[in-house]
Amino acid sequence: xxxxxxFTDQHGTVLMLGNEAIVRGSLExxxxxxxxxxGTPTSDIGETFQTIIGQEPIFHEALIHHWAINEAVASSECxxxxxxxxxVLNPMKHVGLNVASDALSVIALNGPNPGAxxxxxxxxxxxxxxxxxxxxxxxxWMFHFPCFEPHTPQECKDFTKLAFELSEKYDTVxxxxxxxxxxxxxxxxxxxxxxxxxxxxxxxxxxxxxNSLPPHAISNHIRLYERIEAIRSIIPTLxxxxxxxxxxxxxxxxxxxxxxxxxxxxxxxxxxxVPILKLGMIYPLNYEEIxxxxxNLKKVxxxxxLEPFLEVKIAEIAQKFKIDIExxxxxxxxxxxxxxxxxxxxxxxxxxxxxxxxxxxxxxELYNSYKNTIPSRxxxxxxxxxxxxxxxxxxxxxxxxENTVVCGxxxxxxxxxxxxxxxxxxxxxxxxxxxxxxxxxxxxxQKIIALIGDSTFLHTGMAPLTEAANYDSNILLFVFENNxxxxxxxxxxxxxxxxxxxxxxxCNAVGVSWVKVEDSYNPKQLIKTINEGxxxxxxxxxxxxxxxxxxxxxWRQTKIKELTQKGNKVQEISYYIxxxxxxxxxxxxxxxxxxxxxxxxxxxxxxxxxxxxxxxxVCYEICPNGAIRKSIINLFEEEVPFREL
Amino acid sequence: xNFNDTDIINIIIAGTAGQGVITLKRLIEFAAQKAxxxxxxxxxxxxxxxxxxxxxxxxxxxxxxxxxxxxxxxxPLISYGDADLYICIEPVETLRHGxxxxxxxxxxxxxxxxxxxxxxxxxxxxxxxxMIEKVLRQYSDEIYFLNATELSLNSFKSNQFVxxxxxxLAITTNKLPFIEIEDYxxxxxxxxxxxxxxxxxxxxxxxxxxxxxxx
Lengths: 645, 215
What we know:
The structure holds two protein chains of two kinds.
Chain A: E1 12-17, H1 18-29, E2 33-36, H2 43-55, E3 64-67, H3 71-82, E4 87-93, H4 94-110, E5 116-123, H5 138-143, E6 147-148, H6 153-170, E7 174-179, H7 180-183, E8 185-191, H8 207-210, H9 216-238, E9 242-244, E10 250-255, H10 256-269, E11 276-279, E12 281-283, H11 287-294, E13 299-303, H12 310-320, E14 326-328, H13 341-352, H14 358-370, H15 386-397, E15 404-407, H16 432-443, E16 447-453, H17 454-471, E17 476-481, E18 484-485, E19 491-492, H18 503-509, E20 514-519, H19 523-534, E21 540-545, H20 549-565, E22 572-577, H21 585-590, E23 595-600, E24 603-608, H22 618-622, E25 628-633
Chain B: E1 8-16, H1 21-34, E2 39-43, E3 54-62, E4 85-88, H2 91-96, E5 106-110, H3 117-120, H4 129-137, E6 143-146, H5 148-156, H6 162-172, H7 181-191, H8 195-213
Parallel strand pairs in B: 1-4, 4-5, 5-6
Antiparallel strand pairs in B: 1-3, 2-3
């Protein structure tokens, strides 16, 4: 295999994802500090930094990447580094910005000088990898983050580099706003030379700048307005907003991915004379640029995903400069879900009073005729997942959640609300499940179970843990200790993955007296403990320990391979089914995807898919009819168990 | 069908977690770059990918750009009904992403099915291949099934080569113009583990494709 030199080459044209291009743009600007909590669609920015720091000696001296404990910590640590003179990058997902906002509100006031600070915010219209699809662009107004919205990987790189230059020059935090679509799209990127980052800087005392308390809170606020107005005035010189000219009296203003859908939608409709203003920078807007574009139009259509953001500002500018123009936006385009070329084409056809494209029309009609017959394919827990095994025990111990509420949380187990298990009654946000449980436990006598993952426990979970312990809330909390931030691609859980931290000791330290540590792969014992917990008043914690099945299986397979290559024999375990009564305990309540119902000669039975089964043995433990059998070849040779946490 | 240099080629690649949808997409893009294609733009599905979910990627390329930027690729997503080629590593996934098909679409489909969790639990039925084919016939007659999983297991004792075998089938449909087989081979050598087996897999797909399509 050839070496990946896309992050070390000084020039050339390469294929990159939007996120990779952001990394490249940062390196071309001389970034030397990056911190983030993983979150789709920005996790792979960190993965890329980790990889290049590990592999490329040229980055060893100056470049640091931290997986942070949460987004607020990440933003503040980035600011700290910037205030020694470094260029810092701080990626987060859209809901991560909610967590970071407390810190960022002040960092924006102070400004990142003597260094520079760029935040990357990964939005998620369509909720493709998130629990909601909020339009976080409004934060750019609130905190005055000048914000670029790239459309191609090339723009991801170019805008990031430019954002660093301007951030340093104007002492202002800049934002690169991507979406799941732009972050994970690939295209060509023309490279420019790399710049060395600062290895060591120095903090120089400046009390008014770094202490935004009265009176400096006000003076820094005034200074922030001055910085934003200075940036607003130079936008036309940056050459980032582009006009595609046309003679039509109806124009379009759009940005980011919506531009791609809009221009292709016009193409599909055979309209090629509509002038388009493509905004590379969505905040602030340059008044002259906007008024020049809209002044001679009769109508302007604003095409943007989610709540009207540009539309409000364009309307404000039209009013401020007394331009009489009809503005079409939110009434004509859905303010939810992701856009696509076909969707935009249909809405534009309505607005232009023409027939939509036949191809698009027929495609929708034919698809609608059969879409309800397509069997579902929910995302689900991997084969052998310890979280699924734990949810099974909860369903069993509570007689299918009788008089029981399960307060879910973020992590792989967000999927627990999907059928067939459906073992989650509510989701709020990171550690919101336990917090909701505290309130709920005061106001209902139902049994209350709360779930939390190990990474979330450290992210924000210790706060509600302490409160629940303080009030001795009548809750049974499950902490899923699987050793990894699994959902976002197995980033480490700080302290835990390195075995320096004990969740059990933390629970004890905040005053929880009933703490049990159990194994998800021992369902019978776990059910007993759950029953004991549910019959005990007050705050109880069960830490269910088992490594994420993907990681555990990978580790065990490597170990087996190493041993057999040395010529050692090891036990070969497999599970098979004999005498199945078709009770569906394994398929519908445990619901492991390695088990499948098959029909052979018109007889239905369950089978174990040996390709998928990781040999966790949970189905073997729980089969009420003893129909799942265990076979061990080389019984007297070495057993290779999963590693202990 | 003959393509012009400035035509936009639209490809949907669909499958389920772990079947190599993204690997296949990137392979086509790298090969396109080798072939001197002027613009590539495509989108991948990350995030929930590993957890038995439905995975789809769009990839698009254009050998030569039009002077008028309005006529060139500007979006990584294909418009409804605008796909030239579907490469589906799991049969029912062809239907799930059917919104992009039309009478100009060719389908290259692995006939080996992977049932989702509701089917393994016996709560839903998986449609027969005949039913899937019947739906797709409403779009076009260019529907080619190949049991790439069986071929991969028989030839390599592993299901890791299914995506590349299917690429071979897809190439024989002539819906991946301007990219030569040598371009794919070079990219396989440069970027995939077990390059020799993957090149064998590619040719296995090509041979079977030629037989199925009949030339």
